[in-house]
Design a protein that fits this description.
The N and C termini lie far apart (about 135 Å). The longest helix has about 80 residues. About 20% of the residues have low confidence. Helices cover about 65% and strands about 5% of the residues. The chain is mainly alpha-helical. It is rod-shaped, with a radius of gyration of 46 Å.
Length: about 130
Amino acid sequence: MRDDKVIPIKLKTNINHASAGDLIDSTVKSRDNNGNGGEPPMDKYVTHQELEASTEKILHLMDNHFADIQHQLDQHFNKIDKHFSNVNLQIHDTKTTAQNNKEKINWVLYTAVGGIIISVITTIISNLLTK
């Protein structure tokens, strides 16, 4: 039997009591009379090579489609990574600014407290000397 010819066989529903006449060769039917309920009439067959070629083509298209999706996802994740890098830089800048401001505030406070302490000491010494 050749691989490129397909002969569909139709069995009656009760296969335990089948007789030789129950097997119907579809090649006996006219190709114009496809009364088996298929829509559209199914009178075309493919060989194994044609099926494999078609399958390879579909798999190639699927691979290309998934590669496109992967490329789009990579671009999207790169944008997200860039955004998070910018956010991290802004956080670092904010922390640096806060640290600088803290140092300035401490300098002002130490200067003010030192000035008050020096004023108090000067007042005490001047009061002691003037008595």
